[in-house]
Amino acid sequence: MTGGGRGWCLGIDVGSVSTNLAVLDEAGEVACDLYLRTGGQPIHAVQEGLAELERRLPPGARVAAAGTTGSGRQLAGIFAGADVIKNEITAHAVAALRAVPAARTVVEIGGQDSKVIVLRNGVVVDFAMNTVCAAGTGSFLDRQAARLEVPIERFGELALASAHPVRIAGRCAVFAESDMVHKQQVGHAVEDIVRGLCQALVRNYLNNVARGKDIEPPVVFQGGVASNVGMVRAFAEALGFEPVVPAHHRVMGAIGAAMLAGEHGQRRGWPPSAFRGFGVARASHSTRSFACDGCANRCEVVEVFIADELAARWGGRCDRWERAGGVTASG
After folding, report:
1. Is the full-model pTM beyond 0.70?
2. Is 271 in contact with 4 (CB distance < 8 Å)?
3. Helix/strand/coil for 302
4. Domain 102-245 has CATH 3.30.420.40
């Protein structure tokens, strides 16, 4: 654990596609941020991120509070030593309000899922998530860019070059991909197909994820897909106004986790942090599981070891095996 007192705050957002880290300095400004590919190895990605942060941060920089979020938040929280573990809705909402205090809607599209968060007077009043259909997510756009042999970095730029966008069926990833193939076969230009795809994916988002929600400006567009200027333009056309894309839009979940960790520390007078230190980037780790025979449920209990020492257990319906390292979990 690091010593008590005000210091820098670390946030880690572990998703299925990307693992993002952000550090806020004592003034609450983003001192450093990283966007990494998870690659199916969340702990390896967290270690890679912590090692890079250690290289980038000033010598002697001290982490006073750490927080995790994302689908891998529990595992990352145990491994790195988080003071708070928060759900994605909360983390993205507080980060959006930091960037745009008057925000009323958050559109977040990541690698594998998308969400909408409705804010009123700085409070989350409604939200929805889509984790079923991949259409419109970063991984789907990556795949289509590769299939069209267009670098993903140029995907949005190419969309803006279109003068005659074609209509693509965007109800789901399978329909969108097959319709794109058809449009290619009849000779439509690649830029018109790309622009049509962006428009289709925005329709999909508004008709499915955001269905029944009051999408009011200011709308904050965050997540990796917000880097795609074609998608930004398509949202502006569909909504009738420009969404706001924050400077750190790719790592807003990590920024929110760092903010929440800082609030937690401040409320408690900055006690020593549970953060294990940047040295954990070089620590060995392993995960094992076993079936508990304590009752008929036969729960699968997961154990996490760091440097051959048991760091955490979870997975049971009762608390017989629970051991979570003392972190504050919420959602």
Report:
1. yes
2. yes
3. strand
4. yes
